[in-house]
Amino acid sequence: MAERKRPGHLARAVTKQAERKERGDLYAPLCPSRGVLEHVTSRWGVLVLVVLLQGTRRFSELRREVAGVSEKMLAQTLQALEQDGFVLREVYPVIPPRVDYSLTPLGREVAGHVEVLTDWIEENLSRVLEARKRHVPKRGTEE
Amino acid sequence: MAERKRPGHLARAVTKQAERKERGDLYAPLCPSRGVLEHVTSRWGVLVLVVLLQGTRRFSELRREVAGVSEKMLAQTLQALEQDGFVLREVYPVIPPRVDYSLTPLGREVAGHVEVLTDWIEENLSRVLEARKRHVPKRGTEE
DNA sequence: CAGAATCCGATTTGATACTG
DNA sequence: CAGTATCAAATCGGATTCTG
């Protein structure tokens, strides 16, 4: 073992020029996969995805469930996720306006992985908090 | 079904006042779990965790492997992850200085989940890119 | 080598209106 | 209701300089 360097596509010999559909490489600064990752792991993107995993939601409902998000950020987040094909936006021409947001099949896949992560964090928060206490801010005045 | 609202601890009746070690609630704006989530899902945090999953790394190695990160951001990211107990920092008092970074058991757990996510994104990049093409920027001039 | 500290412009974010 | 537009505040983030 001395070849496997990159985590993602390690030991995969993708070098066969543009072979398949094209896989991303997060370790290439210019790869668009970085952008996708950022949409998915963005502050509000994560929470929106996981909430939508529970079912369809309206804008105002998301606003309430994802506590703390501003209208602007929520709209912006939803647009990014919609553009990437994770979220479906359905507008009903009624008065008052009604817009439903839901996950696409693609979205359900990522959201599933994201949820595992968020669940882990919620579940293990105490362990992290313990670690923080244990952690010395600087290096102690003495050892 | 009409009770399950919150994704994370849904249908769990945590309401028994401060029962166990305390679980986080990402849907509570003030819960520290939000901070942990942000460290883990931060721009560079994600990449650092996945790289460290491959094994111990020195500062300069991380700098190279996580292409695009600046010294400042890398240091900052590592500090956050170290504080949360995900990363272990070992200093060797030699000249020139040597510092090794590795994952703690706790870190290996999160990093594992994070890797599943990043792998999915790399793997499915083409699907997302397709969705983006398909996506109409505004609402077309006509339908 | 491994950072800490500083300067400072580029983004991001968030209230607060305003619109269809 | 579901956003968009706007403006100021807060952060981010990188290049540079300086130690141990």
TrEMBL record, chains A, B:
<dbReference type="GO" id="GO:0003677">
    <property type="term" value="F:DNA binding"/>
</dbReference>
<dbReference type="InterPro" id="IPR036390">
    <property type="entry name" value="WH_DNA-bd_sf"/>
</dbReference>
<protein>
    <submittedName>
        <fullName>HxlR family transcriptional regulator</fullName>
    </submittedName>
</protein>
<dbReference type="Pfam" id="PF01638">
    <property type="entry name" value="HxlR"/>
</dbReference>
<keyword id="KW-0805">Transcription regulation</keyword>
<dbReference type="InterPro" id="IPR002577">
    <property type="entry name" value="HTH_HxlR"/>
</dbReference>
<keyword id="KW-0804">Transcription</keyword>
<feature type="domain" description="HTH hxlR-type">
    <location>
        <begin position="31"/>
        <end position="129"/>
    </location>
</feature>
<dbReference type="InterPro" id="IPR036388">
    <property type="entry name" value="WH-like_DNA-bd_sf"/>
</dbReference>
<keyword id="KW-0238">DNA-binding</keyword>
